[in-house]
Amino acid sequence: MLNNFSLKDKIALVTGGTYGIGMGMATALGQAGAKVIFNARRAEAVKEAEANYRAAGIDAHGYVCDVTKEDQVQAMIKDVESKHGSVDILVNNAGIIKRIPVLEMSVEEFSEVIDIDLIGPFIVSKAVAPSMIKKGAGKIINICSMMSELGRETVTAYAAAKGGLKMLTKNMACEFGEHNIQVNGIGPGYIATPQTAPLREPQADGSRHPFDNFIISKTPAVRWGNPEDLSGPVVFLASKASDFVNGHILYVDGGILAYIGKQPK
Ligand code: NAP
Ligand code: GCO
């Protein structure tokens, strides 16, 4: 049974793998046996991350590549296929957020979030799917969010992108299913990474950030998640164990989506 979770001899590409959730998931995929390919936009960060992966015993290979640039993505995939082999597992993780109210947000700022968080996964999936179809197997995992289901003030562009990513996941599952390619999503809850650091910043008097307290009150697990909480879910969706799971968004949120919230004292 456990062999169904092995990723031995598989090539896994994790976009945005230099830190945060991407590094956590890539590490898990490597520990399950995959060769890890990862990318991000900053050369220094890619170099440092590659050294960190290797120091942790992970066979990792980094690329400087912006997921919104189709030519860079195509070149990366071509190089990966010539040096390592075709991608078996794609994790579309790269993403940004801009916390700006609608009326204060420029169209350019809105578009930047949509480009990275929604169009990027389309570009990278389109680049790897032909080889998966040729091979007759593949796994595509899109990193969605609580905001694929819920809204909150100031994250409109992000919620629009992540809501779209949920439906992109379901629709690609419909198109690729006949080729034995499973397309699913992971929807992390609130995870302690650089992206959410501003929401957890301790106050001047040393007390917890109001948003920190808010999330704790909305999470049955009564804690923020960490990247390691996503290790099991991503290995499951990347492995043979999920070959009949398709078009599903697996929420890894400590129960947030099930909870109306703690009654204020
Ligand atoms: P993070 O700490 O900000 O890391 C984002 C990663 O993506 C970095 O490696 C970043 O590197 C890379 N990246 C950003 N734009 C890119 C681009 N255009 N091309 C290539 N790489 C790019 O974010 P995180 O918290 O780990 O989140 C990772 C994913 O999980 C995102 O999709 C996010 O929306 C999602 N998510 C996060 C949470 C959470 O609570 N943290 C919850 C749910 C979902 P460079 O900037 O150097 O390129
Ligand atoms: C925010 C947070 C969230 C998390 C995550 C929740 O400002 O509300 O950044 O959007 O990043 O997406 O699932």
Itemize the secondary structure elements and their pairings.
Layout: E1 11-15, H1 20-31, E2 35-40, H2 43-55, E3 60-64, H3 70-83, E4 89-92, H4 107-135, E5 138-143, H5 156-176, E6 181-188, H6 197-200, H7 210-218, H8 231-238, E7 249-252
Parallel strand pairs: 1-2, 1-4, 2-3, 4-5, 5-6, 6-7
Helix pairs in contact: 1-8, 3-4, 4-5
This protein binds NADP nicotinamide-adenine-dinucleotide phosphate and D-gluconic acid.
Quick summary:
By secondary structure, the chain is α/β, with parallel strands linked by helices. The chain contains 8 helices and 7 strands.
Note down, in words, how this protein is organized.
With 265 residues, the chain is an alpha/beta fold. It is built from eight helices and seven strands. It has helices spanning 20-31, 43-55, 70-83, 107-135, 156-176, 197-200, 210-218, 231-238, and strands at 11-15, 35-40, 60-64, 89-92, 138-143, 181-188, 249-252. Strands 3-2-1-4-5-6-7 form a seven-stranded parallel β-sheet, with helices on both faces. The chain starts with 10 loop residues before the first strand and ends in a 13-residue tail after the last strand. Bound molecules: NADP nicotinamide-adenine-dinucleotide phosphate and D-gluconic acid. D-gluconic acid (GCO) is lined by residues 97, 99, 145-147, 152, 155, 158, 188-190, 195-196, 199.
